[in-house]
Design goal:
Layout (H helix, E strand, L loop, with lengths): L7 H16 L26 H11 L2 H75 L2 H18 L5 H22 L6 H13 L8 H10 L1 H4 L3 H12 L8 H26 L4 H23 L5 H21 L5 H41 L5 H29 L3 H5 L1 H27 L18 H26 L11 H8 L5 E2 L2 E2 L3 H16 L10 H20 L17 E2 L5 H7 L4 H15 L4 E2 L9 H21 L5 H21 L3 H17 L9 H22 L1
Antiparallel strand pairs: 1-2, 3-4
Helix pairs in contact: 3-4, 3-5, 4-5, 4-6, 5-6, 6-10, 9-10, 9-12, 10-12, 11-12, 11-13, 12-13, 13-14, 13-16, 13-17, 14-16, 14-17, 16-17, 16-18, 16-19, 17-19, 20-23, 21-22, 23-25, 24-25
Protein name: Vacuolar protein sorting-associated protein 51-like
Organism: Citrus sinensis
Length: 731
């Protein structure tokens, strides 16, 4: 019978028997004494008889059966020996391990007793001295740790064994509490130091709740030092552009101080939340106030003439501080609170970029005045026009490329504002070109008087330079309509590859609506500048007063009269309206068609009436212009006046006038009519020559629309009143 064929219960019983036989127990102590009636083949029983079993086995078994039984029994013996050896080995190892564990436990218990004795003898008795050293070195955190560690022993034995030690320690702790209170309200201490002092006082069971109001007042006052300053922004820009420049740079010191202050504030908030569990609302309010102030600083910085990259650097610095505070104030949701502030900052930055571009274009147009006034450029109009074109086109391209950085940046806040930025840029271009259109009309004087043109024309040479500016504005309007708008709205033509998203939004501009009007519509802008160019080419500014040359002419005539009266005698008084002489031309003075022409405003009618005037001259009474000069005062004065008017007529015939110039000549000549007729003896000839000057001006005018008679009379009367008042003052 092999070991593998032995049932599990039989094998277990046999193992117990082996242990029992190995350790040799007393058979008498066995609870189951051996039975005298055990089977003859019960080989494990105490009554087993080997000889009897062998004789019986020989008689009953064949030779082959005996051999099989021999083999089986040999295998069983071998298995039993192996099991016995393993059992003894395992039990011996367990015994050895148990012995070692007992030894270690004994050793540890002896060490604990030694340590307890050392603690009682050295630490507790040495605590007052340790606290004194901490007070001298201001190591208050260590002092509180030592004292709170000894508190359980003081509570258990403080009234017996350690009474003196407890009293000395309490005296030292009283000094520490006083010093901590001093640090708590010291302005020279940092935020973090005051927070640590409050935390230590709370660990010492000091009633810090009574100090809460003062502590938060100090914390609120410290916000001023945490707000962004110019040096912080300068450091931020240096770091973003070239970090190597910060080595040994004064701005790096400011940066370290600011970052340390923010970190101290964060740690103070963390400590105050532990000290005052009900202070979350106050802390959130302070954190939001700090974030708001910093974003306001960033907003003001964004309005300056800066790049988008510089604004991004500032926003990143503020956002980093927001995340630091958000870690300790999760309930404040500062990240969401910051979104609105960033939205305002970026929106104002976009608007300011367009404002600066408008200013650049105005500066370029100012070169018209500077170049003509100082003679610095050989072709000032060409220079001004080229600079203006570059400012419009290249400036717009630079703005778009700059705004692309805002769209491409991975800053979390800007990613959320991506769609809004596209809308602001689109709306900004619409407002920019509208304002530029209005600025053109303002500079030309069509909307306001020339004195209101933002001081651009200050110190200029009058209408001559204004006319030059109008010409440049007209050409610039054509350039914007035909070239600039097209290039700005095309995103697929080099070298103008820029934000496809903005170009796409331009294409759909007629769909989106904004608070201040429609989106950017290129067609509308082109039409407005086309109209502006046409208006500027037909620029017209009505005269406001009689020209200065009229006063000079009358003053010169008055001086001549004085000289003539000193030398020549006075002739016979022969003033007349008409003269039957063979003059070379005819008078148009009394032509009723001319008076009708001066009261109309239609250009075609004016030109038609001019033709009628020429036809009417054929049927008018002839007037003698060039007559013999007599040696009398009246003859000489009349001849001088005739020559003057005839010279003026010839000058006018060689000029080209716009409507404004024609109306100015009309006003000046009409004002001269009365004083010249009073000075000359032949009123008909003077009327004729004055009319001829007016007709010549009308012939040389592109838009001969005369001033209405009521306006003409009003301006002449204003000039007469002004002259009378000046004469009264001088006399």
């Amino acid at each position: 019978m092999s070991g593998d064929e032995v049932p599990l219960d039989e094998k277990a019983r046999r193992m117990r028997d082996l242990l029992s036989s190995f350790y040799g127990p007393d058979p008498s102590m066995s609870p189951n004494p051996p039975s005298k009636f055990a089977p003859f083949d019960a080989i494990n029983s105490n009554s087993f008889n080997a000889d009897h079993y062998l004789n019986l086995l020989i008689h009953k078994s064949s030779l082959e059966g005996l051999l099989q039984r021999h083999v089986g029994m040999a295998a069983e013996i071998k298995n039993l020996d192996t099991d016995l050896q393993m059992l003894v080995y395992e039990n011996y190892n367990k015994f050895i391990s148990a012995t070692d564990a007992i030894k270690r436990m004994n050793s540890n218990i002896m060490g604990m007793e030694s340590n307890m004795e050392q603690l009682l003898e050295k630490f507790i008795y040495d605590l007052p001295a340790r606290l004194g050293k901490c007070i001298k070195s201001e190591a208050y955190a260590d002092a509180v740790r030592f004292y709170t560690g000894a508190m359980p022993i003081f509570k258990a034995y403080g009234d017996s064994s350690f009474q003196d030690c407890k009293r000395a320690s309490e005296e030292a702790i009283a000094i520490i509490i006083k010093n901590l209170q001093g640090k708590l309200f010291s302005d020279s201490e940092s935020i973090q130091a005051r927070a640590e002092a409050a935390m230590l006082l709370k660990q010492l069971d000091f009633p810090v709740d009574s100090l809460k109001e003062k502590l938060f007042e100090k914390l609120e006052q410290s916000l001023g030092d945490l707000q962004l300053k110019d040096e912080d922004i300068s450091r931020c820009l240096l770091m973003s552009n070239d970090p190597s420049k910060l080595e040994n740079h004064p701005e790096s010191v400011a940066a370290t101080v600011h970052e340390a202050s923010v970190q101290e504030f964060v740690e103070a908030v963390r400590a105050y939340r532990v000290i005052f569990p009900d202070s979350d609302k106050q802390l959130i309010k302070l954190a939001q106030e700090l974030v708001t102030k910093n974003f306001e600083t960033g907003e003001q910085y964004g309005k300056k003439r800066i790049r988008a990259a510089d604004l991004l650097a500032v926003l990143r610095m503020i956002w980093k501080e927001v995340l630091q505070m958000d870690e300790v104030l999760h309930e404040s949701v500062l990240s969401e609170f910051s979104l609105e502030a960033v939205q305002i900052t970026v929106k104002h930055h976009v608007a300011s970029r367009f404002s600066h571009l408008l200013h650049d274009i105005s500066d370029a147009l100012a070169k018209v005045y500077v170049g003509q006034k100082e003679g610095m450029e050989e072709f000032p109009l060409q220079v001004a026009l080229g600079a203006s074109k570059k400012a419009v086109l290249q400036g717009s391209m630079d703005i778009l490329l700059d705004f692309r950085q805002l769209l491409d940046d991975d800053l979390e806040l800007l990613v959320k504002l991506r769609e809004s930025i596209l809308n602001w840029v689109q709306e900004g271009f619409q407002d920019f070109f509208r304002e530029l259109h209005g600025r053109f009309l303002l500079l030309s004087g069509r909307n306001n008087s020339s004195s209101q043109v933002h001081g651009v024309a200050e110190g200029t040479q009058g209408d001559r330079i204004l006319a030059s500016l109008v010409l440049v504005l007209a050409q610039l309007s054509v350039f914007i309509e035909q070239t600039a708008i097209q290039r700005i709205t095309e995103a697929n033509k080099p070298p103008f590859i820029f934000m496809l998203e903005i170009a796409a939004s331009f294409a759909g501009g007629g769909i989106r609506l904004y608070e201040n009007g429609p989106a950017f519509v290129p067609g509308e802008i082109c039409r407005s500048f086309r109209s502006a160019g046409e208006k500027l080419l037909h620029h017209h500014k009505e005269p406001r007063e009689v020209h200065m040359f009229v006063d000079l002419l009358l003053q010169e005539l008055e001086a001549i009269e004085k000289e003539v009266k000193q030398v020549l005698p006075q002739g016979l008084l022969r003033r007349h309206q008409r003269n039957d002489s063979n003059g070379s031309t005819n008078s148009s003075r009394s032509n009723p068609l001319r008076e009708g022409k001066l009261s109309r405003t239609n250009t075609q009618k004016a030109r038609s009436q001019l033709l009628e005037t020429h036809l009417a001259k054929l049927f008018k009474q002839k007037v003698e212009i060039f007559t013999k000069v007599e040696c009398t005062q009246e003859s000489v004065i009349t001849t001088i006046v005739k020559f003057s008017l005839k010279s003026l007529q010839e000058f006018v015939r060689h000029q080209t006038f716009n409507r404004s110039g024609f109306q100015q000549i009309q006003l000046d000549i009409q004002y001269l009519r009365t004083p010249l007729k009073e000075a000359a003896e032949n009123e008909a000839a003077i009327d004729f020559l004055i009319d001829e000057v007016s007709v010549a001006a009308a012939e040389r005018c592109l838009d001969p629309i005369p001033l209405e008679q009521p306006i003409l009379d009003k301006l002449i009367q204003a000039k007469l009143t002004k002259s009378l008042s000046q004469s009264a003052v001088s006399s």
